Every structure is written in structure tokens, then in C-alpha cells.
Amino acid sequence: MAFEPVPLQPLERGYLRVLRIRSALGWLIALAVAVAVDVFLHWRTDISPGFVVGAVGLFGVVSIIFLVPRRWRRWGYAFTDRELHVAYGWFTRVYTVVPVSRVQHIDVSQGPIERSANVATLILHTAGTENSLVALSGISRQRAEDIRDVIRSRISDAPW
User: Fold this and answer.
1) 3-state SS, residue 68
2) Transmembrane among the record's keywords (predicted)?
3) Which of 3, 85, 94, 144 lies most in the core, judged by the most C-beta atoms within 10 Å?
4) Does the pLDDT of residue 71 top 80, yes or no?
């Protein structure tokens, strides 16, 4: 049986904002650590203050402006009536196909940052132990609920 590629849909544009906010929060923590390192280095040696903070800050800004959108563009998904296809990855490309018949539990989650951008995460729990959880972030809440409802109806129609 040959694999036929399914055309993938991009994630919602609002998810790019979510990724940028999350990245900025991570870089703020890194910046706080850099300030402590900078103070320590200035106190122990005569390295001018701002050396470490400047490097971390510059890399953080470059990351938020250029690397985050590149990561966002590499995500895609497709939902047929029988399967959910999820593809992501920049260096290592991952393509996951989840048959609806393998789904045991479905979650739709939305944190405060996601809520502000009107996106949600669809989480599918499948049979098995390894890789039994597939998360699709960055789709609209309505789309996540629609997929959830279709899968739930398929699960309830399945003969036990």
C-alpha cells in the first residue's frame, strides 16, 4: 500500500504570536541569568558590564524575530475522516498519522496566552505506550472542537 501525501493546512496566524510570547518569556529568564553572570564577572574580573547581557539580548531578539516564524511555518496538519496528519520540524522533519480508530481519549486545551490569540491545542491519546500522545497546537478552538466531535462520534460508532 503506497502512501499518498495529504495536503497540509498551516497553523493559525495567532499561534505565531503565542510562540513569540513564549519565546520572549524564556529569553527574559535567560536575560535575568545573564545579568547575574554579568555582575559576577564584573565583580571578579574587569570585564565591562553588559557584555553577557548584550550577547544574550541580541540572540534573543534575533530568535524571536527570525527563528520563531521559521519554526511556525514548518508546522502543518490535515484531518480526513479517518486520520489526523501532523507534520513539524525544522532540522528533523516529523510526520505523524493518527488513525481515528486508535484514539482513546481527546482533550482540547487553551491556556491564557492561547486564549488571547484565539487558538487551542488538540491532544489525542492513542493506544500504546511510546508516542501515545499526539498534540496539535495552533489551530482555532472551533476547529479543534470540530475535530474532537468527529473523532468522538467515530469512537462511539465503533463496535466493541
Assistant:
1) helix
2) yes
3) 144
4) yes
